[in-house]
Predict the 3D structure of the following.
Amino acid sequence: VQLVESGGGSVQAGGSLRLSCAASGYTFSSYCMGWFRQAPGKKREGVAAIGSDGSTDYAPSVKGRFTISKANARNTLYLQMNSLKPEDTAMYYCAADPDEDDCYSGSTDHFGYRGQGTQVTVSS
């Protein structure tokens, strides 16, 4: 399993970014996929998850601002982030797990597979 994130960067508060995660080495469409983040000195925080059926789950801190989606034909996971805040600054990781019974945003930080991360920095 290989997960490669891209799309991070620096933006001002209120701006938007779209993260992508290119997946390979497994049946992408049948796994639970998600994003988690970690800021310096803070615990990992699950951000969003999407099941094989397209059902989604979000952390309260991002609900209404972030949207998780996937393109099975492209083996790619996305995270559209709007109305970004300085507190969204963190390294963002893509994660995957075959266990659909635990497909929740709060579980993403301990999924079986994760990428190397992409940095998101939001300035005020």
Q: What stands out?
A: The chain has a mean pLDDT of 97. The longest strand covers residues 17-24. Residues 4 and 22 are 5 Å apart (CA to CA). The two ends are 37 Å apart (CA to CA).
